[in-house]
Every structure is written in C-alpha cells, then in structure tokens.
Amino acid sequence: MEEAYAELARAARCAPLPPSERIYSITFTNRGETWTATVGKQLTGEKIIRKSGRGGATEHIQHLSDRATVLAIFPGIPWIVWRDAVPSAWENPFMAGEPKSVRRFGPPATTP
Origin, by domain of life (predicted)? Predict the structure, then answer.
C-alpha cells in the first residue's frame, strides 16, 4: 500500500505525505456542482436545481454520483485526485481546484 501511494505521489509530482498528514476527503465545486472525493469511496455530489413557475420559485437538491473510486488526494495548486480505472466522467488524475473543506486521516477536519 505504501509503495502504491508513493507511486501515485510521484506521478502527481508531489512528495508523499506522512500518514498523519494524508488527505482523507475533500469537498470541492465543479461546474456549479458540489462534489466530495473520499479515499476508498466513490465520488458523490449535489446540484441545486432551481425552477420558476406560476407558483413561484422552487429549488431541490439533485444527488450525483460517479462509479470512480478515489485512490489518493494530494494538496497543491491545483489539488490532484487519483481514481481507479473504471469508466468515469472524470479524468485520471483530475484537478479539483481549491477545496471547500478538507479532512485528513490523522487530525480532525480543517478548512483550507
């Protein structure tokens, strides 16, 4: 597992992080959708749908998902997310931009 993590870090042109500093999960915005990338889980997201009609404006949340499972997340400009090789709408790796929230494997959640 350490060897695989180190290889992903090299490919992302990042230094491997010590275990207590590794990123477990990030939440980020992409094309007006809010997505969560969590190591070991499939990508999930939400999109707010707004509709106007005679009765006024309404909005609801549309839940989004992708079959890709997150393998590793690396901080930087931009943040890099590696996923598995299943067919997906996301590149591999993909750039997540600046996350809205960050959770590490070690210490409690932090905000960038």
Answer: Bacteria
